[in-house]
Amino acid sequence: LKVLDVRGNNLTFLSATTLDYLNVTDMTLSLGDNPWTCNCDMIDFFTFLQVPERKVLDSNNIKCASDGEELLSINEYTICPSFRQPMVIVTIVLITVFLLLFAVLGTMSFYKYKQGIKVWLFTHRMCLWAITEDELDADKKYDAFISYSHKDEEFVNTVLVPGLESGAPKYRICLHYRDWIPGEYIQNQILQSVEDSRRTIVVLSSNFIESVWGQLEFKAAHSQALQDRTNRIIVIVYGQVPPESELDEKLRLYIS
């Protein structure tokens, strides 16, 4: 059989057995002018017509009996709305699983890198309402690093440090002679002391102004304050100092 013309035969659908037979033949088909019932039973027939190699001469004349619409002009979801449901359910499940996985991984990452994330947010001025300075400084080793001239060490060691370490509350203080590692580069230890401390206390005196190391310590603390975008320098004026107009411009910011 080479040609099958069943136009105008009141066919409403083709069974799976018939379609299986037609799938293995190369006959030319004419199927129009039949009242095809466009429902879920027609999905196999609809798929059959989609194959370009099929020799259906009047495929454009195969129409739904209900509305006269060409079968090939609609999709399987219109023919059988329930055909979409499994795909929709699978899509929803996949999206839900992805969101849950993302939330779990995000939560785990946040708690693992919580401190680093908060520091990054703080330095970029983002979500500041969710970040306190105590959280930002939670990993700091010291409450304060004291920067002073060795000529003022009597005041520092007998008045300032005892008052801070023995008072209420008691503060953890970083001092050159006590906490620095012998043999390490002084510049590196200055930077490390500033970074490890919540505040840098500058004992500002005429001796400090003349001290090269004192100036380096102040500049390191000032740079850290700019990087963290928070004031980390406390200045204690000790003795007579030159007028503000003669002081370093950056230093004047902390005593004016």
TrEMBL record:
Its main location: membrane. One of its GO terms (biological process) is innate immune response. GO terms for molecular function: signaling receptor activity. The chain crosses the membrane at residues 87-111. It is a single-pass membrane protein. One of its GO terms (cellular component) is plasma membrane. Residues 140-256 form the TIR domain. Pfam families: TIR. Keywords: Leucine-rich repeat, Membrane, Signal, Transmembrane, Transmembrane helix. It is found in: Membrane. It comes from the Eukaryota. This is Toll protein. It comes from Penaeus monodon (Giant tiger prawn).
